[in-house]
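re: ur question from earlier - yeah i can do the single chain one, its not a big deal. heres the input i used so u can compare w yours
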Amino acid sequence: MVARQANVSRVAVSRAFNPNASLKADKRDRILQVARELNYTPDMAARSLVTRRSHLVGVIVPDVCSAWESQEIDALTSALQAEGFATLLFKAKADLSIDLTLLTYMRGFNPDSVITFTENVDPEILGRFLDRAVPIYVIYDGNEGLAGRRHDTLFDRLVVRQRDGIEQAVALLQGYGAKRVAYLGGKAQSLANVERSRMISEIMAERGMAPPIMVESDYTYDTAYRATMDLFRVGDGADAIFASNDVGAFGAIDALRHELGLSVPGDVKIVGFDDIQQSHWKSYNLTTVRIDLDERVRALVRLILRRLKTPDAGPLVETLGTRLVVRGTVG
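and the output i got, formated as tokens:
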């Protein structure tokens, strides 16, 4: 009906609903206008039987409501929609593992790709629940965890290089005379946190500084707030805190200012990690190690599109750097 009304072929109608298909803009617009007038939508299930593509991307995340994950999910969903994909969202359990029943559900949707994190599900396990899809793993630095083990299952990788940003942060703190530096950690199971704590220790040793004071936390504001209180009221305090994420840095700042009566950055200097949208708010004005969210999302989408274009290729890799953004909590 749409093809006849728009005076085009049925192939052209199919291409009009695929953002990646080659079709002149005016023809696509005419077809989509006719489709709206006729209240037509393509049968995606039927199309997938022909193309063997579901146009679905599974995303396994450790959290949905936390600041970084919510911002990444929002940006990633928008980018995938622009490429003609819909998103299937799966949430890991509190210990960052995932219920295998959810992977059974995922398999039923036959996703074109799955994006996950190293601590959520092992490639050999995930591979048993996928057909042709090659999963994408987000790996921090590639020196530990998943990237350092042998795997028979094919998977693609987004490698986040944290060292540059952390090294810049440590150099800044040292330049301002910080000697007692505390590392305010994230979840113990998080390999990103493991890498950050290892790397800050390594860099401080290289620069002739004393080892960081390791403070347990879990990426949340409330735990970071309490941990900072304990650091100063039970422990010997610190003249700088390097937080594993920005939300933890916010908790540390508020504990220092509102409970302990200390000045930031006058008495204690604070560095965060991620550079979420709230980091530039005037109440915090946080110095932080930035992971460029737009670049990260573009890299993930490129991996998906490259894999669909070359399904038989070996492991595909994208690399993303980090850099320090200097604001008002160090100075």
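The first strand starts at residue 56 and ends at 61. not sure if urs matches, ping me
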